[in-house]
């Protein structure tokens, strides 16, 4: 079975010239079937109010189907929360870029009458890429590796803002928070979900959108047990750890991107990047993105110890400039987030894992999320939204 990394190499797109090498769709170029009204007119429970859960609810709302969203956390957003206090533009603590054409935004909204004014900015050939190896820093222009349809930055907003502006208004009153589902019984005519306080919720069908790591940890009990192919996919999944760090400096001494020998491999990824790129801001903010074993290095530290470790790493590269100009720091350790417990499915995983996770069960249980997809990429907001469209098409047919 071809892995995601092997698929990227086959498409001749694998490299480290752009943030996350998330351009697989440039090769796969799938054409989606339209969402058309079907015979289903029952009720639906949606577990989780992240990207997939909200996208599912939004589409069901458009179809006039009765639904309820049950979210364990205190608010919606899942892994694309933002910080609005660190600087004068939103800091994405989770999902940050659009990794595909801007046409994906109206596809999520699914309404030609809606004017989408979200501003996105692709990178430029003149932007700089630094590579630090064996004690030496080499800085070059990104050049022709830039593709306008990949890795675009949200300007003055974020993925969270996009959903809050265009998706949340029509579904907000159908959300119930602080409701952690402990068991799902799909043995009868109805699907019954029970939260950790014993409260029961009943519907004709259920869409599960919680992070795959939570299923792997056994935090939801299924009655009867899920089919063996689904259980095996859950057991086989290698969910990467996830850590983001943002540092504010009094001046910009760093390139647009900073890579290392281990910026992209089968164990994980890491890179520093100009988090203030394109923003109308005078602040200099450097972001650190890390997943997998690379993230675990940083996750050994917290508080002042993490700050000192990161500054020491940057000081070695930039001759002490980091400590000299340091202003402030914020961090997000996704392993410590109770309703995530990690980042996302390993980029080198077999495509069979996400495909098996996308399969429905007994015409009652449906799955949507960044790791539950029939597409050849995963672990992005646009993929989560696509998986929601797939689940809704099947559910309402």
UniProtKB/TrEMBL annotation:
The protein's Enzyme Commission number: 1.13.12.3
Pathway given in the UniProt record: Plant hormone metabolism; auxin biosynthesis
Keywords: Auxin biosynthesis
Domain Amine oxidase per the UniProt entry, residue ranges: 173-396
Catalytic reaction list: L-tryptophan + O2 = indole-3-acetamide + CO2 + H2O
Pfam families on file: Amino_oxidase, NAD_binding_8
Superkingdom of origin: Bacteria
Broad enzyme group: oxidoreductase
InterPro entries assigned: Amino_oxidase, FAD/NAD-bd_sf, Flavin_monoamine_oxidase
Family: Belongs to the tryptophan 2-monooxygenase family.
Protein name (record): Tryptophan 2-monooxygenase
């Amino acid at each position: 079975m071809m892995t995601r990394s092997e698929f990227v190499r086959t498409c001749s797109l694998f490299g480290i010239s752009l943030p996350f090498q998330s351009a697989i769709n440039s090769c796969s170029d799938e054409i989606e079937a339209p969402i058309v009204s079907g015979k289903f007119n029952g009720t639906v429970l949606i577990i989780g109010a992240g990207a997939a859960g909200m996208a599912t609810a939004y589409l069901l709302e458009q179809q006039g189907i009765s639904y309820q969203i049950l979210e364990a956390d205190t608010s919606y957003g899942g892994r694309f929360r933002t910080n609005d206090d660190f600087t004068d533009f939103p800091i994405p603590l989770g999902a940050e870029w659009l990794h595909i054409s801007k046409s994906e935004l109206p596809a999520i909204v699914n309404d030609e009458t809606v004017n989408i004014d979200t501003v996105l900015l692709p990178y430029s050939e003149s932007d700089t890429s630094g590579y630090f190896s064996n004690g030496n820093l080499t800085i070059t222009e990104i050049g022709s590796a830039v593709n306008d349809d990949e890795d675009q930055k949200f300007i003055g907003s974020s993925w969270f803002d996009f959903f809050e502006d265009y998706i949340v208004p029509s579904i907000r009153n159908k959300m119930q928070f602080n409701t952690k589902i402990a068991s799902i019984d799909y043995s009868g005519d109805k699907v019954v979900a029970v939260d950790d306080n014993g409260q029961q919720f009943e519907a004709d069908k259920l869409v599960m959108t919680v992070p795959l790591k939570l299923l792997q940890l056994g935090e939801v009990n299924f009655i009867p047990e899920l089919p063996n192919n689904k259980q095996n996919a859950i057991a086989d999944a290698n969910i990467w750890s996830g850590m983001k760090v943002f540092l504010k400096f009094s001046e910009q001494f760093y390139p647009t991107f900073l890579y290392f020998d281990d910026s992209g491999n089968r164990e994980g990824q890491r890179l520093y990047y100009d988090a203030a790129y394109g923003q109308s801001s005078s602040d200099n903010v450097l972001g650190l993105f890390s997943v997998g074993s690379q993230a675990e290095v940083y996750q050994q530290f917290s508080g002042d110890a993490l700050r000192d470790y990161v500054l020491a790493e940057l000081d070695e590269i930039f001759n002490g400039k980091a400590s000299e100009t340091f202003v402030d720091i914020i961090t997000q350790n996704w392993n410590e987030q109770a309703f995530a417990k990690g980042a996302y499915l390993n980029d080198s995983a077999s495509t069979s894992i996400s495909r098996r996770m996308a399969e429905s069960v007994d015409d009652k249980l449906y799955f949507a999320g960044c790791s539950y997809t029939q597409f050849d990429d995963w672990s992005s907001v646009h993929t989560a939204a696509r998986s929601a469209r797939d689940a809704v098409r099947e559910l309402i047919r």
